[in-house]
Amino acid sequence: MIDLLTGALASGLAAVLDYLSAHVLTCLVPAFFIAGAIAAFVKKDAILKYFSPDTPKHISYGIASVSGTILAVCSCTILPIYAGILKKGSGIGPATTFLFAGPAINVLAIIYTARVLGFDLGAARAVSAVLLAIVIGLGMALIFRSTDVETLKKREMAPSVAGACEEEKPRWVTPAFFALLVGVLVFGASQLDWAIRIGIVYVLTLAIAVLLIYYFDRDEVTDWGLETWDLTKKIFPILIGGTFIVGIIAFFLPPETFQPFFGNNSVVACALASIVGMILYMPTLLEVPIIGTTFGYSAGLMAPGPALALLLAGPTVSLPSVLVIYRIVGAAKTAAYVALVVVFATFAGFVYGNGMLLI
Fold first, then answer.
1. DSSP 61
2. Which residues contact 193 (CB under 8 A, 6 or more apart)?
3. Most distant pair of Cα atoms in the chain: their distance
4. Element containing residue 185 per DSSP (H, E)
5. Percent helix, percent strand, percent coil in the chain, to nearest 5
6. What is d(CA 46, CA 162) in angstroms, rounded to the nearest whole number?
7. Cβ pair 128, 51 in contact under 8 A
8. Could you give the residue ranges of the DSSP H alpha helices within 216-266?
9. Domain ranges in the chain?
10. CB–CB of 151/89 below 8 Å?
11. Which residues lie closer than 8 Å to 105 by C-beta, 6 or more apart?
């Protein structure tokens, strides 16, 4: 019994250490700084112009659904940015579409899927991710219409205060600042040689420092730091705890346990794949070898339907991210989001696996 408990705790600790070594410096730290910058520097009008509850749906959902094409992030890394845009007054629907799309359709993951698992599955993943992001976002907006009504009421009641310091800056400064932050995230998480990555991140960081020194005052930089810290202390401990729990679960139920159940394209197999994807933490890009080897897709042991369902649910939601989403939006919205992801990932996998989705 003691050996079993020790093994489980060691598995949880190993999962945390793997997460810290692989994602904190290259993904999570830049994501927290981006989220803090959104809260500190971006005018509400900029967010509300595209993601407000009253923005035309083809604009808000269209932009949110393709947002992940440049962000090589996983379900946990997207969370600080998601919290940041909600804090600025985004509608629940566009924000949820962004939350799903961010990890689901980054270009690296799509290309990697097509190369390793086949073009058909890669194309199906790309198309399904965009469609599901929009449908899930619309579903959340429909279910929680009262939330958007409340958001609009708060906006109307809030006093309109013009930021004088923001007006003094050249218009290009803030977009350039965010482009550099996103560059740090993208290149830091890339698969380039480590020396090249460090060099690029170093140059981008110097450019950020120059902008901060010459175009931002001390109060603005302090506000950025406080917003970043506020998000970090709310989210990071839960991510670590959730990752530890996933490691313990993996000790008792390793992925190989489910392999025999994924050999057909039935609704049950696709649903099980979606649920497993919802629980497991799969960093971006690593979902491809996990599905190809651990679950046996490359060897023909896993059917296409469950493979697609797992590709859609796995990178976009996980137990650690569910715990954080609960902290951000509460139990009802979290449960609805998870249920929508599982249901529609199951549906997409079943449709693709049975030849009803022609790619």
1. H
2. none
3. 66
4. helix 173-188
5. 80, 0, 20
6. 13
7. no
8. 218-252
9. 10-156+164-169+216-353
10. yes
11. 65, 66, 68, 69, 126, 129, 130, 133
Cα–Cα distance for residue pair 189/111, rounded to 1 Å? 16
Alpha helix stretches (DSSP H) within 107-163: 107-117, 119-143, 145-157
Residue position matching structure tokens 């009504």: 149
Rg over CA atoms, the chain: 21
Tokens, residue 288: 């491809």
Encode pLDDT of 174-215 as tens digits: 889 989 988 887 787 777 788 888 899 899 999 999 999 999
For the purposes of burial, counting CB atoms within 10 Å of the CB of 326, is it exposed (0-12), middle (13-18) or buried (19 or more)?
middle
Cβ pair 347, 275 in contact under 8 A: no
The tokens describing 68, both together, are: 């992940």
Per-residue pLDDT tens for 247-288? 787 777 776 777 788 989 999 999 999 998 888 877 666 677
Query: What is the percent of the chain where pLDDT is above 90?
Result: 23
Nearest Cα residue to 148 out of 234, 33, 57: 57
